[in-house]
Amino acid sequence: xxxxxxxxxxxxxxxxxxxxxxxxxxxxxxxxxxxxxxxxxxxxxxxxxxxxxxxxxxxxxxxxxxxxxxxxxxxxxxxxxxxxxxxxxxxxxxxxxxxxxxxxxxxxxxxxxxxxxxxxxxxxxxxxxxxxxxxxxxxxxxxxxxxxxxxxxxxxxxxxxxxxxxxxxxxxxxxxxxxxxxxxxxxxxxxxxxxxxxxxxxxxxxxxxxxxxxxxxxxxxxxxxxxxxxxxxxxxxxxxxxxxxxxxxxxxxxxxxxxxxxxxxxxxxxxxxxxxxxxxxxxxxxxxxxxxxxxxxxxxxxxxxxxxxxxxxxxxxxxxxxxxxxxxxxxxxxxxxxxxxxxxxxxxxxxxxxxxxxxxxxxxxxxxxxxxxxxxxxxxxxxxxxxxxxxxxxxxxxxxxxxxxxxxxxxxxxxxxxxxxxxxxxxxxx
Amino acid sequence: xxxxxxxxxxxxxxxxxxxxxxxxxxxxxxxxxxxxxxxxxxxxxxxxxxxxxxxxxxxxxxxxxxxxxxxxxxxxxxxxxxxxxxxxxxxxxxxxxxxxxxxxxxxxxxxxxxxxxxxxxxxxxxxxxxxxxxxxxxxxxxxxxxxxxxxxxxxxxxxxxxxxxxxxxxxxxxxxxxxxxxxxxxxxxxxxxxxxxxxxxxxxxxxxxxxxxxxxxxxxxxxxxxxxxxxxxxxxxxxxxxxxxxxxxxxxxxxxxxxxxxxxxxxxxxxxxxxxxxxxxxxxxxxxxxxxxxxxxxxxxxxxxxxxxxxxxxxxxxxxxxxxxxxxxxxxxxxxxxxxxxxxxxxxxxxxxxxxxxxxxxxxxxxxxxxxxxxxxxxxxxxxxxxxxxxxxxxxxxxxxxxxxxxxxxxxxxxxxxxxxxxxxxxxxxxxxxxxxxxxxxxxxxxxxxxxxxxxxxxxxxxxxxxxxxxxxxxxxxxxxxxxxxxxxxxxxxxxxxxxxxxxxxxxxxxxxxxxxxxxxxxxxxxxxxxxxxxxxxxxxxxxxxxxxxxxxxxxxxxxxxxxxxxxxxxxxxx
Lengths: 430, 575
Hints:
The structure holds 2 protein chains of 2 kinds. Chain A is an alpha/beta fold. Chain A has 12 helices and 23 strands. Chain A has 3 domains: about 5-70, Beta Barrel (Elongation Factor Tu (Ef-tu), domain 3); about 70-330, Rossmann fold (3-Layer(aba) Sandwich), CATH 3.40.50.12240; about 340-430, no CATH class. Chain A has helices at about 125-130, 150-160, 175-185, 205-225, 235-250, 260-270, 300-305, 330, 340-360, 370-385, 395-405, 415-425, and strands at about 5, 10, 15-20, 25-30, 35-40, 45-50, 65-70, 70-75, 80-85, 100, 120, 135, 140-145, 165-170, 195-200, 225-235, 255, 260, 275, 280-290, 310-315, 315-320, 325. In chain A, helix 2 (about 150-160) packs parallel to helix 3 and helix 9 crosses helix 10. By secondary structure, chain B is α+β, with helices and mostly antiparallel strands. The longest helix of chain B has 24 residues, at about 445-470. Chain B folds into 4 domains: about 5-75, Elongation Factor Tu (Ef-tu), domain 3 (Beta Barrel), CATH 2.40.30; about 115-190, CATH 2.40.50.100; about 205-440, P-loop containing nucleotide triphosphate hydrolases (Rossmann fold); about 445-570, Bovine Mitochondrial F1-atpase, Atp Synthase Beta Chain, Chain D, domain 3 (Bovine Mitochondrial F1-ATPase, ATP Synthase Beta Chain, Chain D, domain3). In chain B, the strands form 5 sheets. In chain B, strands 8, 18, 19, 20, 21, 22, 23, 24, 25 and 26 form a 10-stranded mixed beta sheet that branches. In chain B, strands 1-2-5-4-3-6 form a 6-stranded antiparallel barrel. A 4-stranded antiparallel beta sheet of chain B has the order 12-11-9-14, with no helix packed on it. In chain B, helix 5 crosses helix 6, helix 10 crosses helix 11 and helix 11 runs antiparallel to helix 12 (about 510-525). The chains are: A alpha/beta, B alpha+beta. At the A-B interface, strand 5, strand 17, helix 6 and helix 7 of A face strand 1, helix 1, helix 4 and helix 6 of B.
C-alpha cells in the first residue's frame, strides 16, 4: 500500500520537505517522477534530496515513499550496458529490475582482508615497471584539466587483464562520454564493461550516486569471483557535488567550502577496494583533477591520505617523481629478478638528469658526465615515459638495459655487478 | 535500576533525537531498535527534554517512533585477562570473531563479548577481612608474558573489606572470584572482568613522576637527536606519503616497552592488515615470543562509522591505563589523531555548534590536551613504577603545520617529529626533519654533544642554500668541508635503512659507540683544500660508515670496521 502525499512544505535547492509518517531514514521516494532519498527526519517533517534537482518541482507534486533504500539491479545483464547516475538506462536498452541490491553497503571487516599480492599488467612501462598497479589497490591519477587522463583510463580499461570493468563517470563532458563509449566498443572491451555515466549537464545529486552504484555492482561481481577494475573519473567533480549539496543544506564548511566530512565521504568509496579471500577483487583507479595543479587543494590532499599512492600525470606523461604505488613492493620482487634494482637505479639516474638539466638551464658548464645524463634523460623520456609506448613489462625492462648500455659504462650505473653481468646487453663492454 | 525508554523523533545523519520519560545521563549508552537490530549510540546532549544520540553505526532505516533503550551506563570498555593479542574495533568489538559470525562485511548491530571466554589459573593475593579500595590487586593470573593483576574496579568509591575470596585454582573469566563489602553493608561480587568508562582517566596511583628515562625505539634519529621518554608524549605530523605509518610500525616493533597498543583511527584498512599478518610472525627480541603477544590493536579504519572513530582513541587509552596499573610500561600509538579530530568536527556540525577555526569545534584544543595528558609515568600504590607513552600521528591538510590540530597537539606534547616531503621525496628515511623537529626529553647520547652536532647540521644547511646561488666554485674550502660534514651526519646517522635487517635495529649502546666516532670525525679539522678531493674523502668516509652499519654489533667485524673508519679519517686530520 503506497500513500501519496501532495503537500510539499518547502523547496530549497535540491531538498524538499513534506509531512509524512512512518518514513525510514535513507529510504527512496518519488517526487513527481524523479527519485529522491530521505536525508533527514524531524518529527513528521521529512527532508528529501531530489535526484533531478529542485528545479520545476511544484508544491503539489505527488510524493510517494517506496519503502526501500536506493538499490541497483545486479546480474550478468549489466555487462555492456550504460546507465545514468540514478541507475536509469541511457543506452535505449530495457530497464533492469531483477535481483536488486542496496548501494553504499557496510565496509569489509579488516580481519577478513588479505595482503594484496597480484600485479595488474597494463602495458604502460611507467606503471608496470616503475609503479606497479596491484590487484585491490586504490590509486588516483592526479592531473590538471586538459591532460589526457580519460584516454589513459580507457587505454588501461582495454589492456588491463581483468574480468569486469565498471566505469563511473562524474561530471563528464558529453564528448568525453562518447569517446569512452566508442573507444571501448572499438577495442571490444564493451562486452565486459558496465558504465554509470553522469554528464556535466545532469543533476548534481546523481553525480554523488555514481561511485556508490559503480562500487556496489563491482563488489557483487567480485564476490562472484571476478577480477573487477573500477574506473572513476573525475572524483573532484564528485567532491564538488558533495560541496554544493552541503552548502545548500547550510552545513558549516571546513576548508575552501568543502564539508567537514569530505575525508570520510571519499574514504568510504575508495575503501571498497578489496581482495576477497577465495573470491574476486575490486581495484579502483580514479582521476582527481587538481585545480591549479595544487596538490594541497582539499580534494587531492584528502585523496592522498586515503589512497595507496597516486599517478601524477603531467605534460602528457606519468611523472616518476610524485607518482607512487605503495603496494608495488608486494609484487615487484616476483616479476623478474632485475625489476626492483633496475627500477631504483634508473630513477636515481633520472633524478641526476633533472639536476643536470637545471644546471644547464642556469648556464653552468656541462661536464662529460652531464652530457651522458642528458642523453639518458632524452632516451628515457621517449622510450619509456611516453604514453604512446605500449609494451609488456619484460620488454620494458630490456629496453631499460638498452638505454643504460647506450649511455653509460656498466660501473657508472650504480647497479650490482652480478646483475650487470647477467643483463648488460653488450657483453663486450664488461 | 529501571531502564529508561524513549522514542525517536528525528534523524540527521548519525544523530538521532529521542524523547524520553525518566532519567537520562549525559554520555550514557543507548540502543536504537530498528527492526530486529539494536544500534549502539551515546547520549551527547540533552536539551528541552530531548536527548541527542550519536549512533555508532549507519543510521539508514531508522524511522520516527522507533524505540530507544537507555542503559544508564557510560560508554565503557571491558577489562580483564585476554585483551592482549586481540583486534578490536573502536567500540571493543573483536573483529576476528565478528568475521567468523558475519563473514566479509561488518554487519551493524552485532556486538560480541570482547573478553575471550576461557578459564584462567587464579592465585589470590588478599585474604578474607583485608581492606581494599579501587585499583587494589585481589589476585593474579598468568597472561602470556605477564602476571596479570585482577583488580578492584577503578570506579568503586570508598574502602571495602574482602568478605570472601576463592582459593588458588582455575576459574572461568566471568565467574565470581571475590566478594567485597563496604561499611554500609553493600556487597559486590567481583569476577576477573570489570568495565571502565572510556572518557574517565584512571587515577589509582600515588603520584605522577617526571618522565626522565628514555624510551628506546632503536631508531638513531629519535633516540639520539629527538628522544622520547617513558611516560612522555610525542606527535608525528607529516603530509601523505612521508612515511608516518611506516615510522609508527617501526616504533611498535622495536620500542623498549612491555605492551604496545596500536589505535588505527580512520586510516587505511590495508595498513592494519599488514600489522595483523606481520606481527604474529615477528619475534620480540626482548622475550623471544611473537610481537603479537604484547600488542592490542584497536582498528577503526576510514570507511568504518565515523562516530565510533571518536571513541576508538579513548578505548585505546583506557586499555593502556589498565595495563599500566599492572606496573607495566605501555606505548600507545594513535594513527591518526587528525581523523579523530575530524570525527569530532562532523559531530559538532550536526549539533549545530558554533564552529571555530576550519570548522573544528571550540573545545578541540582542550580535548586534545586531555587525551595526551592521560600519558604519564606514575608510582603505583605498591611502589612500582609504570608508564604510558602516547605517540600520535597528525595528518595536516596540505602538509601545512599551521592548521588547528597540529598546533593544538604541539602545545601539549613533549617531542615533535615533523616529517618532511622533501626528505621523503629524496628517499631519506626516516623522513623526520632534523632541524624543525624538537624534543624536551633527554636521550641515550649526551645532549650537549648532540647540540654541537646539530649546529654543524644547521650551518651545513645554510652553506648548501648559499651554494645554490654562488655555485660550488664560489664557496670556500672551509665552508665546503662543513657542508660535507653536515651531509655526512645526515647520511650515516639520521638516515637509517629499515629494510636492512642489521641497520633497522640500532641498540642504544651501538648508537653511543657510533656517535662517539662520528662526533670525533665531525669535530676534527682536515687539511684538504681541493673540493674534488674533499668530496672524494667524505664520500669514502660515508661508505666506510655505511659498511660499519652493516656489521653485527659486538662481533669482530664490527670492531674491525670501527678501526677502519677511525684510521681513515684520522689520517687526514690537520696538524
